Amino acid sequence: MAAVPVSVITGFLGSGKTTLLARLLRDPALTRTAVIVNEFGAVGLDHLLVEASDEDIVVLDGGCVCCTVRSDLVRTAGDLLARRAAGAVPPFERIVIETTGLADPTPILQALMTDPNLADALCLESVIATVDAAAGAQTLDAHPESVKQAALADRIVVTKTDLTDPAANGLAARLHELNPGAPQLTAVHGVVDAAHLFGGGLRRWLAAEALPHNGDGHHGSRHDDGIVTFCLRRAAPLHAATLSLFLQTLAEHCGAALLRLKGLVDVRESPGRPAVIHGVQHVFHPPAWLDAWPDGDRTTRIVVIARGLDPRWLEDLLDALDDEVEKCSIW
Fold it and tell me: Which of 65, 152, 260, 270 has the fewest CB atoms within 10 Å, measured from its CB?
């Protein structure tokens, strides 16, 4: 059975996560979706309820399932999957997780990637961050959690634009500097086309135009929050051993600084079948292999969002490891 795609909705307190989620549940594109909300959240679902399965799970109009985290996320997700297999809940095809406003989304992403009971059953589809157009700049200044939420996102949803213009107050430009690979979507009273929020995450991350040339030979951007976004590119294929050693080194020595990494890698031993890599701090998901390249670009592209990592150091590390592996292969 195919892995169930999971999307995480994050964002600081009062940024509009609850409104966005409630609106999304009305969208036909989210039919057959399971929604997990944290125990501190409260989504206004009364108008959407059809029946209550038990005190923790309700079935919504359109076949959606909504439940509340009573213990931990892993247990809740596992319980949902078990109930689906037993036919106790509608056969959902996607899971959406809403975090608390103060939450660092990193542990959630790591849990989805590493738990032995979930890693094969679930696959991370996208991280969506909501940012308040009126208070977003002040929130980014005052709360490091909000900076990390925006930096990790695949999509950023700017809310409350009826109160102020994010382009006029500089918020849109700041978010682009912080996370140039994330499209910014505008929500009017919580309304966003669900088709623009889900799917296509890898292609968006790897879009070259999202990472402008910064003038020193690298593609990327730096931000005053200390977060740097850049793309490592390699025209020549990498040895499989090089990729393994590279990810192992990052996990062991760069975990705290490495916020997120995602890439498409041309591996010498698997021509025509690129490897998809994905990491969050010190945790890396085992590479997934595509049957073919998704576009005309056949080069290795690794997008990195980090705090305090020098792109040159990572490039030199990758070159050094590949040189050593090449020497060993000759002998």
Answer: 270
pLDDT score, position 81: 92
Report DSSP state, residue 144: H
Structure tokens of 205?
């991350």
Q: How many CB atoms lie within 10 A of CB 172?
A: 19
Kindly list the distances between the CA atom of residue 232 and the CA atoms of 52, 63, 303, 310, in Å, as whole numbers in the listed order: 49, 42, 6, 11
Domain of 180? 4-199
How many CB atoms are closer than 10 A to CB 255? 14
Please state, as a whole number, how many other Cβ atoms lie within 10 Å of the Cβ of residue 86. 8
As a whole number of Å, the CA-based R_g of the chain is 20
pLDDT tens sequence across 45-55: 444 433 444 44
Does residue 213 share a domain with residue 146?
no
pTM of this structure: 0.79
Mean per-residue pLDDT for 161-165?
A: 86
195 and 214, same domain (yes or no):
no
Residue 38, classed as helix, strand or coil, is: coil
- Helical spans, DSSP H, in 87-143: 106-114, 136-142
Let me know whether 170 and 222 are in one domain: no
Return the pLDDT at 277.
Answer: 92
Please tell me the distance from the alpha carbon of residue 254 to that of residue 109, in angstroms, as a whole number.
17
pLDDT at residue 129 above 90?
A: yes
Same domain, 56 and 157: yes
The answer, yes or no, to whether residue 223 has pLDDT greater than 70, is no
In this structure, what CATH number is given to the domain that contains residue 295?
3.30.1220.10
